[in-house]
């Protein structure tokens, strides 16, 4: 028996090793996604014709909004000594609403929001709204197509400052971007699905098909927040279309990263090999980091489980919509600003800027349909596809901003093995809007590297 024990132990070790490897390895890629017709009517009942689009809100909608702003119920006073720690302080909300009622001029802002060429196209039954900005042709400047995606609680308003930068050559760069920036289905002027199942993977297919209809077989992609998640799916599923992936929210959803976090919680020294020393305080102590994340992601759980219930409340009240969204512009830009009476809202934005974004949600009544993206992406069926566990095969650049979600170097390589550029900056979650020059330069630098690599590989 003693002689057989080493053999039995060896078998057990091999079996456990196999099980651990199976657990850590990404699952097989799912079969090709079905091109589902997400809109009303029958398959193919609407052709993907490009139509010019202009934002034009009726007086009726504006009068209804003004009435609701004038006749809201009394706001519950904040607790003594509390700024934004319980969510948006109602004293600050009152200041925003007073500005909204008396100083915000939608007709002027409507002209501003119409400054870039806008279009509608129907893809798989969905009317998709997008901005398409082409750079001027210049000798020696290569024009590169770029699909640019926003997230929640953002909209295309996030890109109005960065678009003029991306579409012109910067400094000694010999490239400029032809930018296609759509509203995600269910956001803004893009229609939502009429049937369940339109998650990040399915939207990746919709946008890949949209780009094909616009004449782009290959293109670069950039996104933050949910835009990054959708484009990560696109890069995994359709690497022949994606020339390079740039994100200001590279995130990792692998079992190995979970194990790393677990062990470093009890043995902080364990993390020395995958976290730079200067980043140590961004994830340690681990439990404090975990509870910070938990505190700031309650919205995610609500939207991923009961989007329609929440949507009724938010869609009914402009004050509720403003509070729900603006709270994220405090905590997402700098969580320390929760201790400020003004929430830091005007450090990088104006009330007019912020209300532009809120108005896009209000006039399109898209609160509920925007929330549904979470329930369609963070469920068993969608997560069961295993796409977020797949390594991204295309060249990748990650721009990490100090107050946004953080993933350490040694975790990023699990999902992004082809990182050509990894940068760190001050700033927060809404980088394209907060620091357009910084983000644009990072995009230019990254694509220049990717283009050079493609050239050298030929």
From TrEMBL:
**What residues form the catalytic site here?**
225, 374, 429
Q: Which residues form the Epoxide hydrolase N-terminal domain?
A: 50-159
Any Gene Ontology CC annotation: endoplasmic reticulum membrane
Give the molecular function GO annotations: cis-stilbene-oxide hydrolase activity
Highest rank taxon of the organism: Eukaryota
> Per UniProt, which keywords does this protein have?
Aromatic hydrocarbons catabolism, Endoplasmic reticulum, Hydrolase, Membrane
Membrane topology per record: Single-pass membrane protein
Could you give a single Gene Ontology term from the biological process aspect?
epoxide metabolic process
Q: What is this protein called?
A: Epoxide hydrolase
Give the location in the cell.
Endoplasmic reticulum membrane; Microsome membrane
Reaction catalysed by this enzyme: cis-stilbene oxide + H2O = (1R,2R)-hydrobenzoin; 1-(4-methoxyphenyl)-N-methyl-N-[(3-methyloxetan-3-yl)methyl]methanamine + H2O = 2-{[(4-methoxybenzyl)(methyl)amino]methyl}-2-methylpropane-1,3-diol
Q: Belongs to which family?
A: Belongs to the peptidase S33 family.
What does the UniProt record say this protein does?
A: Catalyzes juvenile hormone hydrolysis.
Q: Which PANTHER family match?
A: EPOXIDE HYDROLASE (PTHR21661:SF35), EPOXIDE HYDROLASE 1-RELATED (PTHR21661)
Q: What is its EC number?
A: 3.3.2.9
């Amino acid at each position: 028996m003693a002689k057989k024990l080493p053999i039995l132990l060896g078998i057990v070790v091999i079996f456990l090793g196999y099980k651990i490897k199976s657990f850590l390895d990404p699952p097989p890629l799912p079969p090709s996604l079905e091109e589902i017709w997400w809109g009303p009517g029958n398959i193919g009942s609407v052709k993907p014709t490009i139509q010019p689009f202009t934002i034009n809100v009726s007086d009726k909608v504006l009068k209804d909004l003004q009435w609701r702003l004038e006749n809201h119920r009394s706001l519950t006073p904040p607790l003594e000594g509390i700024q934004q720690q319980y969510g948006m302080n109602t004293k600050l909300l009152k200041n925003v609403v007073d500005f909204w009622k008396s100083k915000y001029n939608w007709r002027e802002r409507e002209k501003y929001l119409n400054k870039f060429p806008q279009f509608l196209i129907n893809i798989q039954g969905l009317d998709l709204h997008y901005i398409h900005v082409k750079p001027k042709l210049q000798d020696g400047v290569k024009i590169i197509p770029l699909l640019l995606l926003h997230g929640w609680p953002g909209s295309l308003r996030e890109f109005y400052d960065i678009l003029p930068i991306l579409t012109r050559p910067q400094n000694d760069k010999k490239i400029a971007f032809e930018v296609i920036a759509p509203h995600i289905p269910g956001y803004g002027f893009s229609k939502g699905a009429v049937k369940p199942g339109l998650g990040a993977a399915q939207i990746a297919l919709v946008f890949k098909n949209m780009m094909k209809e616009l004449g782009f077989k290959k293109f670069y992609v950039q996104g933050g927040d949910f835009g990054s998640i959708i484009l990560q799916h696109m890069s995994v599923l359709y690497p022949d279309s994606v020339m390079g992936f740039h994100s200001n929210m590279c995130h990792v959803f692998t079992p190995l990263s979970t194990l790393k976090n677990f062990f470093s919680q009890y043995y902080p020294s364990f993390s020395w090999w995958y976290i730079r020393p200067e980043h140590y305080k961004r994830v340690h102590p681990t439990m404090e980091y975990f509870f910070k994340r938990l505190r700031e992601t309650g919205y995610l759980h609500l939207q991923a489980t009961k989007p329609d219930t929440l949507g009724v409340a938010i869609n009914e009240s402009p004050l509720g919509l403003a509070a729900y969204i603006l709270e994220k512009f405090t905590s997402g830009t700098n969580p320390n600003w929760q201790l400020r009476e003004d929430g830091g809202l005007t450090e990088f934005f104006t009330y007019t800027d912020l209300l532009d974004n809120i108005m896009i949600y209000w006039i399109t009544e898209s609160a509920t349909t925007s929330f549904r993206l979470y329930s369609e992406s963070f469920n068993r069926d969608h997560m069961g596809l295993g796409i977020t566990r797949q390594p991204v095969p295309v060249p990748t650049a990650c721009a990490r901003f100090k107050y946004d979600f953080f993933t350490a170097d040694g975790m990023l390589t699990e999902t992004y093995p082809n990182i050509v550029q990894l940068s760190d900056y001050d700033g927060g979650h809404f980088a394209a809007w907060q620091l357009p020059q910084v983000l644009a330069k990072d995009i230019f630098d990254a694509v220049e590297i990717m283009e050079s690599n493609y050239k050298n590989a030929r």
